[in-house]
Specification:
Low-confidence stretches: none
Pfam family, one: Iso_dh
Distance between the termini: 19 Å
Bound molecules: 1,4-dihydronicotinamide adenine dinucleotide, magnesium ion
Organism: Zasmidium cellare ATCC 36951
Largest sheet: 10 strands, mixed
Cofactor: Mn(2+); Mg(2+)
Enzyme class: oxidoreductase
EC number: 1.1.1.83
CATH architecture of the largest domain: 3-Layer(aba) Sandwich
Structural class: alpha/beta
Order of helices and strands: EHEHHEHEHEEEHEHEHEHEEHHH
CATH class of the largest domain: Alpha Beta
Oligomer: single chain
Helix content: 40-55%
Number of domains: 2
């Protein structure tokens, strides 16, 4: 009899297709756990949706963070509804979770999965040209929430949005980025900045980067890009990059571009990490609630599955890396078949059919051993 480790997961489906893809991810994770046999997942669902917000006036209860702190990880679908202004839903739920739980790193792996029609001609021939790990600063920068509005509702309204950069915040993200680059085969880091025009915060960003870089001399090769030029390089020379580190806003934008270059926003995953492991980390597909297709059962669950694979890697602390890799193989077997991938990837399957196909492929991939 082997020992079984139980991972307690707080599941927050949220709104729209967030609900469908979270349900799909739970089914697939349960299948994975059952197949491997050394661990299992115990999911607790929190209905902190926009629908509930409209009924009761809040997204999370007052002790919401205390409730979450008991879990090994958080799985998140998506939040956002046409009936609630986006800054209310974002600041009501997802941003406070990231902040309170010290999730100062947002990791966005980007690859072209089989079955994807990549928009770049060069990537249609060589999908391996896009293999990036985007490291987004997730706690400060342009999304620090500092600022204010005066003379509201008058022609003289003034609003400020203050970007915050701290030495502590920059140093820890740079160190995480260098460690990530070091752990990957190419050992290559591209640092994104805008220190030509933004002459305070971004200058500190560069300065601390160069300090940390000294510790990795001869170990990690690095270069530096202005964010505007970076968009051009991502399109024209995608193969020239590996690990990428950028501020909260810059990486938010660049990672959407990355998702588009990889073929579909529906497959892109993300991990919000507290590298100290004091608080739970959160895993979520990068797409939103997609009100245009919500309720139709056609959402691509692959972004949620890939996020789930990253969650397996994280909770396993090195022990489940192979399981996560094999799980990704099962997902890729499904995306390579037009009959089992969803419409946004040019396939004919709905969410349920893709989910069932992944469940079958888990048997195939793990059964081989
Ligand atoms: P979105 O990602 O929800 O949708 C953009 C487009 O991509 C839509 O046409 C949608 O149908 C399609 N799409 C997205 N995910 C898909 C999937 N899994 N399968 C197939 N097609 C998919 O972004 P949008 O429309 O800008 O935002 C909608 C709502 O979601 C807003 O309220 C927004 O604030 C919220 N949002 C929430 C996020 C989160 O919870 N982390 C992230 C992004 C947006
Ligand atoms: Mg975004």
């Amino acid at each position: 009899m082997t020992n079984t480790t139980t991972y307690n997961i707080a599941s927050i489906p949220g709104d729209g297709i967030g609900v469908d893809v979270t349900e799909a991810a739970e089914a697939v994770l349960n299948k994975l756990a059952e197949t491997v046999g050394t661990f299992k997942f115990n999911f607790t669902t929190f209905d902190w949706s926009s629908k509930k917000y409209l009924e009761r006036g809040w997204y999370m209860p007052e002790d919401g963070m205390q409730q979450l702190s008991k879990y090994d990880a958080i799985f998140f679908g998506a939040v956002g509804s046409p009936d609630v202004p986006d800054h209310i839903s974002l600041w009501g739920l997802i941003l406070p979770i990231r902040k309170y739980n010290n999730q100062y790193v947002n990791v966005r792996p980007t690859r072209i999965l089989p079955g994807t029609v990549a928009p770049l001609a060069q990537c249609r021939e060589r999908p391996q040209d896009i293999d990036w790990m985007i490291i987004r600063e997730n706690s400060e920068g342009e999304y620090a929430g500092q600022g204010g509005t005066t003379h509201e509702n008058s022609p003289d309204t003034i609003a400020t949005e203050v970007a915050i950069f701290t030495r502590v915040g920059i140093e820890r993200i740079m160190r995480f980025a260098f460690e990530t680059a070091k752990s990957r085969p190419r050992k290559k880091l591209t640092m994104v900045t805008k220190s030509n025009a933004q002459r305070h915060g971004m200058v500190l960003w560069d300065k601390v980067f160069h300090e940390v870089a000294k510790e990795y001399e001869g170990v990690v090769e690095w270069d530096k890009m202005l964010v505007d030029a970076m968009t051009v390089r991502m399109v024209n020379k995608p193969e020239s990059m590996d690990t990428i580190v950028a501020t909260n806003l810059h990486a938010d934008i660049l990672s959407d571009l990355a998702a588009a270059l990889a073929g579909s926003i529906g497959i892109a995953p993300s991990a919000n990490l507290d590298p100290t492991r004091k608080y739970p980390s959160m895993f979520e597909p990068i797409h939103g609630s997609a009100p245009d297709i919500a309720g139709q059962g056609i959402a691509n669950p692959v972004g949620a599955f890939w996020s789930a694979a990253e969650m397996v890697r994280w909770v396993g602390q090195g022990k489940l890396d192979k399981v996560a890799d094999d799980f990704m193989q099962a997902i890729e077997n499904v995306t390579s078949n037009p009959k089992t991938r969803t419409k946004d990837m040019g396939g004919s399957a709905n969410t349920k059919e893709t989910t069932e196909a992944v469940i079958k492929q888990i048997d195939v991939v793990f059964g081989k051993k």
